[in-house]
Amino acid sequence: MNDLQLGVVEGRFADIIWENQPISTTELVKQCAERLSWKKSTTYTVLKRLCDKGIFQNDNGTVCALLSKDELHAIQSERFVEETFQGSLPAFLAAFTARKPLTTEELDCLRRMLDDTEER
């Protein structure tokens, strides 16, 4: 699970699985042909790559997620903050808001999140 970055197309593929899991490989191939214009071999190649990353599991032709979309995003976000801002969430927020001020709604949401975290 070292490299959990997904490209745009891998992300669209992953969404198909998350939206339909558990999904048979037969149905996955069909969905990928319709939505991504992929051949069967492409579907299996990308599926194997994402299974090797520990995101999905193919168990006898039934594909399901080992990580939810939210779990994957959380891991990716944690790694980004760790690698780019030495793990400092305040430094990340300062950089993020330097060019894009937060709206009142976003600030309220952040306050609620902080309050919820503090209560735990």
Describe the structure.
The structure is a single chain. The protein has 120 residues and is mainly alpha-helical. 68% of the residues lie in helices and 8% in strands. It has helices spanning 8-20, 25-36, 40-52, 69-85, 89-99, 104-119; strands spanning 23-24, 56-59, 62-65. The protein is elongated. The chain starts with 7 loop residues before the first helix and ends with a helix.
Describe this structure in a few short sentences.
By secondary structure, the chain is mainly alpha-helical.
- Could you list the spans in which at least 5 consecutive residues all have pLDDT below 50? none
The Rg value, from CA coordinates, equals: 18 Å
Read across the widest sheet, the strand sequence of neighbours is 1-3-2
For the terminal residues, how far apart are their CA atoms? 28 Å
Mean pLDDT comes to: 94
Beta content comes to: 5-15%
Q: Return the string of H and E elements.
A: HEHHEEHHH
Summarize the biggest pleated sheet: 3 strands, antiparallel
Task: Report the total helices.
Answer: 6
- What would you call the shape? elongated
